[in-house]
Amino acid sequence: MSKEKVGILLVGLNGATANTTVAGSLALKRGLNDNCEGMITETEIFSHMRLALFDQFVFGGWDVNPRDAYQAACFNKVLDPWLIEELRQDLETVRPWKAVVTAHDVDSSREAGNIIEAHSLQEGLNTLKQCILSFKARYAVDNVIVVYLASPLKHIELSDIHNDLSMFRKAITNNDESVSSAMLYALAAIETGCAFVDFTPNVTLKVPAIIQLAAEKKVPLAGRDGNTGQTLIKTVLGQMFRIRNLKLQGWYSTNILGNNDGLVLSMPEHRKIKMEDKLGVLEPVLGYNHFSHIVDIHYYPPRGDNKEAWESIDFSGWLGMPMSAKINWLGRDSILASPLIIDLVRLLEFALRRGDYGIQPQLAIYFKHPLNTSARGFFDQYTLLKNYYSEIEEPVPVPHKNRLIKESMTLDV
Ligand SMILES: NC(=O)c1ccc[n+]([C@@H]2O[C@H](COP(=O)([O-])OP(=O)(O)OC[C@H]3O[C@@H](n4cnc5c(N)ncnc54)[C@H](O)[C@@H]3O)[C@@H](O)[C@H]2O)c1
To answer: What count of Cα atoms within 13 Å lies in the side-chain half-sphere of residue 140?
Structure first.
C-alpha cells in the first residue's frame, strides 16, 4: 500500500469523542504514548493486512462550537493536562468548519455561533460539499472517511420522501422539515466519494435514498451507534445466557454520566432515540422478549466523561431456581470510543481501496444497532469480523507488533 494521506473528517469535531480521537492520534504519532489497547485492528486477526497508519491521517471537520482542538481538549477534560499542553501547538491548528443545523439539532446549537448561514437546505449541502472538496485538494487526499459524531438528534419520522433518491432530492429543494442536518452531512460525504460512518443512534443510515446514493457512488457505509460500554456487556452476557440455556428474567441498568453527551441525553427529545437502541439490544440476542428491561440515564456533572453504570441482572436456571448478577462498570466514554473510530476509519479506508461499497455488515461488532446483519450477539459478531478479514489476502504482510507507533513519527493535522 502507498503512503498516501487519508482524510478523516469528524462531524462534531470539538466533542469529547472526536477531540480525543484527534488528540490521542497526535500523541501516538509523536511517540508521547505507545499504547494502542482498545483497537481491534491492532490484534492478530488483522496482522496480515496493511491498514492506514497514523502518519497518513489528516484531520478536519465541523462543529457548531468554534473552539480550536486545544480549547476543546481543555473543556472535555478527557486527557491528562500535561499531555494536552504537550500537544498544544498542534491542537491549536485544528479548527472546525462552520456546521449545518436543522430543527432536529439541540435547540442551543445555534447560539454556539459556528453555523453556516444558509438560506436553504441545498445551500447548506453545497457548502458542506465545498468544504470536503477543498480539503481533498489542499491535502491531495483521495480517500476520505466522514465520521458522524455530533449529538443525537430529536426524533424523525421516516416517510415517502426518504424512500427514493429523486424524491429525497426534491425534499431538499423544498426545504422539507424531515431532512435533518445529519442526512445532509451523509449526502455531502457520499456525493463527494467519501466513506461515511454513523457512530450515533440517528436514523440517517435507515434512509433508503442515502443507501441508494452510496450504491450509485460506490462508497462504503458503517453504522449505527457505537457499542462501547453497557450495551457491549449486554451483547456478551446476552449471548452467554442463550448458549448456556439460562433464562433472563430481568435486567435493570442505570448510568451516571457528566459530559456534554450526558447533558444532551438529559433532554427527553434527544434521549428517545438513544433509548431505542439501548432497549432494543437484548431481544435479538436472546431470541425472546418476555423479560423486564429498564434503562436509566442520569446527567451527573461530577463524573465528567468517566461514566458509571450499574447492572442488576436476574436470571433463572435448572429447576427454575432464581439467581442474579451485579456489575459495576466504570468506563471512560471517549477512551472506549476513540480507538473504535480509528478502527472504523482504517477498515473503511481499506474498503474504499478495494472498491467495497454500501453498508459493511462485517463491522457489526462496533455498533449497538448494526445494520444489514442478523449477528447481534458479541461472539457471532466477532466470528463475522474474523472470518471476513481472515479471507482477505494482502500481498506483503507487515509485522504486527507496535507497527502503528514505530512507523508513525510525523503528523499532519
Ligand atoms: N463516546 C461513546 O462511548 C459513544 C458511544 C455511542 C455513541 N456515541 C455518540 O457519539 C456522539 C459523540 O459523543 P460525544 O461524547 O463526543 O458527544 P459530545 O456532546 O461531547 O460531542 C458532540 C459534538 O457535536 C457538536 N455538534 C452538535 N450539533 C452539531 C452539528 N449540527 N454539526 C456539527 N457539530 C455538531 C457539539 O457542539 C459537540 O461538540 C454522540 O451522539 C454520542 O451519543 C458515543
So the answer is: 4
CB distance 288 to 294 below 8 Å: no
Q: What is the mean pLDDT of residues 258-264?
A: 93
How many other C-beta atoms can be found within 10 angstroms of the C-beta atom of residue 251?
A: 23
Q: Which three cell numbers stand for residue 260?
A: 456534554
Q: Is the CB of 62 under 6 A from ligand 1?
A: yes
Instruction: Answer yes or no: is the C-beta of 15 below 6 A from any ligand 1 atom.
Output: yes
- In this prediction the pTM is 0.94
CB neighbour class for 1 (10 Å; exposed up to 12, middle 13-18, buried from 19): middle
Q: Is residue 129 domain-shared with residue 20, that is, in the same domain? A: yes
Ligand 1 atom with the shortest distance to the CA of 336 = 3
Domain count within the chain: 2
**Has residue 401 got a pLDDT over 70?**
no
pLDDT band at 412 (very low <50, low <70, confident <90, very high): very low
What φ, ψ does residue 228 adopt, rounded to 5°? -120, -20
- State pLDDT tens for residues 281-335: 999 999 999 999 999 999 999 999 999 999 999 999 999 999 999 999 999 999 9
Out of 275, 298, 332, a domain closes at 332
Give the pLDDT confidence score for residue 273 in this predicted structure.
Answer: 87
Q: Which of 19, 77, 94, 149 has the most ligand 1 atoms within 8 A of CB, as the residue to mutate?
A: 149
Ligand 1 pocket, residue 198 CB under 6 Å: no
Residues 27 and 50 reside in one and the same domain:
yes
- For ligand 1, say whether the CB of 228 is within 6 Å of any of its atoms: yes
What is residue 219's predicted lDDT score, i.e. its pLDDT? 97
Q: How far apart are the C-alpha atoms of 63 and 38, rounded to whole Å?
A: 26
Q: Is the dihedral of CA 248, 254, 259, 261 positive or negative?
A: positive
Q: Find the CATH number of the domain harbouring 113.
A: 3.40.50.720
Residue 380 has pLDDT above 90, yes or no: yes
Q: Which atom of ligand 1 is nearest to the CA of 150?
A: 24
Helix axes 208-217, 165-173, angle to 10 degrees: 110
> For residue 111, what pLDDT is reported?
84
DSSP label of 14: T
Does residue 336 have its Cβ closer than 6 Å to ligand 1? Answer: yes
Q: Whose CA is nearest to atom 11 of ligand 1?
A: 149
